[in-house]
Amino acid sequence: MIRYTFDSRAVRPGMGFVALKGERxxxxxxxxxxxxxxxxxxxxxxxxxxxxxRERRRALHATVIGVTGSAGKTTTKELLRAxxxxxxxxxxxxxxxxxxIGLPLTILNCPDDARFLVLEMGTNHPGEIAALCDIxxxxxxxxxxxxxxxxxxxxxxxxxxxxKGTLLRRxxxxxxxxxxxxxxxxxxxxxxxxxxxxxxxxxxxxNIANACLAFAVAERFGCTREGAKAALAGFALPGxxxxxxxxxxxxxxxDTYNANPSSMIAALDAFAATPCDGRRIAVLGxxxxxxxxxxxxxxxxxxxxxxxGIPLVIGVGEESSKCLCHLVYKxxxxxxxxxxxxxxxxxxxxxxASxxxxxGRLIEEGGQPA
Length: 370
Known about the structure:
alpha/beta
């Protein structure tokens, strides 16, 4: 099989190059560079990319599992990858390739011998899950939850539920939490053995739920509890997802990959339960795409943080700076100028916001993963 990339700089002899026209860059300008680097095939534009992916999907022998939800998609996808790998060769979405461009590329790059292909499916507008299902033709659908992400475009949680539920309706078999009132779920996501298995690996009740969902799917295909426990040894999430970094004698939890009200509250609960030698400090930035209820939803998050009794809660951004907390800053750079003075040795610091806020800038110089 040929492996494809969007980046002409990543092309190696025998690979394929996907030329897409974007808002700022036209990939067609890099076709000569891709050919010079050894590209043996060129995919011309989005329509051809998606058509090739549909064709490739039909040729795959792998069981295709789609994963969506308002929060926990990537965690559940990575847990599925780990659990299913104990049963057979497993391929899965890399990074944030979960949209109409990334998903078809993932399908094209699925190895011929894969027994399972786990596809993360993102959406922020109605109809996008259906379009991804048209390409992926999932055998199994997993919906982690229905929260309040992207309310700007879905307006209500019922609208979000309808969008996410498309995956359950389009797949032959569906899995979702039994305790989510917006989903027709049957999976018990509060199993004691999983709580024990995840101890020291992933914190929080929300991750127990994600792991139980992932195991319910993997168990259907032969994964055992012993296999799942073994797969969790050394498990870590990619990117800025609950990444622990030691700096200035303090421990930072960088969870800045993305944020919505549901994931914010889940992260705060996990953070409040995490042991530390000093103070807990929560730095919470704006959440985007929440629509007319943005102010209300931000206040709910900050009210929750204050009820938890976190000693120092810092709000960053236009919306967050309007909320009740201990310190507020309109932008990250203003906080960065004095952030070091607020941190003492032994403190545990949570950084959480939508990715575009780039809260990670607060610690990007000199921090080393723990």
